[in-house]
């Protein structure tokens, strides 16, 4: 999956070190390791940054999909969390759909922002989910003026990508779905 000099690859055992390097880079969410929406009740009992890294690595080692990396040359510069919805907790999605994958967050290194990379990650997430048996992709974006959850993307971006509003999840997040 490549476009405009950007290559997109799933995080797996072969790309784990790239994911790890990206999450340790300046401004990256290394405190979270993209576990905020994934932790089980048992994992919540040991909710520390080093533990979250171990939890996400275990998912990769057991071949549980966790998301996509965007590369420039051989360097990971962006991340999109996309995985089967059942691998997440508490997202507040549309429960009557089956074979749903969720896009839960993005991280793009500062120097690569505002270049359309989120759009490219969403399109690749849809293709990746479909290739792995999904019928729907669900997202939980906010309005641009939201004081929180901005890492989940913006409503207008998902509208442009063919997602439709379903309901609110809490006061800020919008549940949006796209049939693929």
Brief rundown of the structure:
The chain has 180 residues and is α+β, with helices and mostly antiparallel strands. Helices cover 26% and strands 27% of the residues.
Descriptive overview:
This protein is α+β, with helices and mostly antiparallel strands and 180 residues long. The protein has a single domain (2-179), classed as Aminopeptidase (3-Layer(aba) Sandwich). It has helices at 16-24, 41-44, 49-61, 117-131, 155-160; strands at 2-3, 6-10, 67-72, 75-84, 100-108, 136-139, 164-169, 173-179. Strand 3 and strand 4 form a beta hairpin. The longest helix is centred in the C-terminal third of the chain and has 15 residues, at 117-131. The chain starts with a strand and ends with a strand.
The major sheet is characterized as: 8 strands, mixed
* CATH fold node name: Aminopeptidase
End-to-end distance, in Å? 17 Å
Label the overall shape. globular
Tell me the name of the CATH class. Answer: Alpha Beta
Helical content, roughly?
25-40%
- Taken as a percent bin, the fraction of beta residues is 25-35%
